[in-house]
Design brief:
alpha/beta; 5-stranded parallel beta sheet; 13 helices
Length: 363
């Protein structure tokens, strides 16, 4: 009832006002709102222009079309600012705390430790003591196991350090006698450690799948590998290119395997040909596969990098001793001398190159 009465009272007033006056009033209101918005936008643009003009105290330096550089004043400002920064750093360098020596894992690749710096804390920090689950262990590794914790075998770090030092002496001795050392690591992430160790010991590396028969059938698989003749100072001697084509493929004098479980075929070939091997033996591997086992955690990339770096550093020390003795006129190895005529004769008649080389080659 109240709404009906209000409509009845106001309805007479609405009908009494002409329609063109209503439309005119609405148009005037819209025009005024548009004018006010335009004036506000103009004021904003003027304020932005004033801020930009006041903010740019120094103009952008002009670039020379010939030299494509800015004037010398800009260089002087940059040099002056850099000198002030260095001065502030020198003044505040003594502030703050001093960094004590701490463990840096990246140095296992960039700067591996020498065999004399092998310590139990270093092996512990590299997770060398962690083995596999007790359900996966190999009973042959019982003499390397220290105990059990949370269902995982713990490797004795004393035995690991002793076996690692022994392997370093073997690598250093082979390198000192100009032996060929092959580093093998085919797991993901081991390629950098393998390459670094091979470079230090001046050997060879393999971080891909081992080709079966590379040793037993080397003259067919590796027959086209490039070889060269060097003197006692590792300087190449030219003129033996044609003779090397008839020579049998080289075999490594020592093989260092970082993951023996995946490369058991290679270890079997090395055992058949009497090539000594060094391998990282975890609690689930068989230590009889390699000649010089190193009980450690082969799943830890940090542990693998540590062992590979230490062995590579040992090979580097052996190469340095060999070159030092060569400068004094002392050879640490017996140079190989082989008869090319007998080798060529054996190739023509279909004989075994390696048997002919052993029969009439070395003296």
């Amino acid at each position: 009832m109240i709404i009906r009465q209000a409509i009845a009272r106001q309805g007479r007033k609405i009908t009494s006002v002409p329609l063109h006056r209503c439309f005119a009033s609405t148009i005037d209101d819209s025009i005024q709102s548009i004018e006010s918005s335009l004036s506000n936008s103009l004021k904003e643009t003027h304020s932005i222009e004033s801020l930009v003009q006041n903010g740019t105290s120094s103009p952008v330096p002009r670039i020379d079309a010939k030299t494509h550089t800015t004037p010398r004043d800009n260089y002087w400002q940059v040099a002056q600012g850099f000198s002030s920064i260095r001065r502030q750093r020198a003044l505040t360098a003594h502030l703050g705390t001093a960094l004590t020596p701490h463990y840096e894992p990246h140095k296992l690749l960039t700067d591996p430790p020498s065999p004399s710096k092998i310590t139990l804390p270093l092996l512990l920090a590299s997770q060398s003591h962690l083995g596999h689950s007790t359900s996966l262990w190999n009973p042959s590794n019982s003499r390397y196991i220290f105990g059990i914790r949370s269902g995982i075998h713990i490797i004795s770090l004393d035995i690991t350090a002793a076996h690692l030092r022994r392997a370093c002496r073997v690598v250093s001795g082979v390198a000192e006698r100009a032996g060929l050392i092959l580093f093998v690591g085919t797991r993901k992430g081991q390629n950098r450690a393998v390459v670094t160790a091979a470079k230090m010991s001046e050997g060879c590396h393999l971080f891909e799948r081992w080709t079966p028969g590379s040793i037993t059938n080397g003259h067919q698989i590796l027959g086209r590998c490039r070889m060269r003749v060097v003197d006692e100072h590792d300087r190449p001697i030219p003129g033996y290119e044609e003779q090397l084509l008839e020579r049998p493929s080289l075999k490594p004098d020592l093989v260092v395997c970082l993951n023996p479980i995946e490369n058991w075929v290679m270890l079997h070939e090395c055992g058949m040909h009497g090539i000594p091997t060094i391998g990282i033996i975890d609690t689930d591997a068989d230590p009889t596969w390699v000649t010089y086992p190193i009980p450690a955690n082969d799943d830890s990339l940090r542990c693998v990098q540590l062992i590979a770096g230490v062995l590579g550093r040992a090979g580097e020390e052996g190469q340095e001793r060999r070159r030092a003795k060569a400068r004094q006129g002392v050879l640490t190895y017996q140079p190989e001398v082989f008869d090319i005529k007998k080798i060529e004769k054996g190739v023509k008649t279909g004989g075994d190159r390696e048997a002919i080389h052993r029969a009439g080659g070395s003296q």
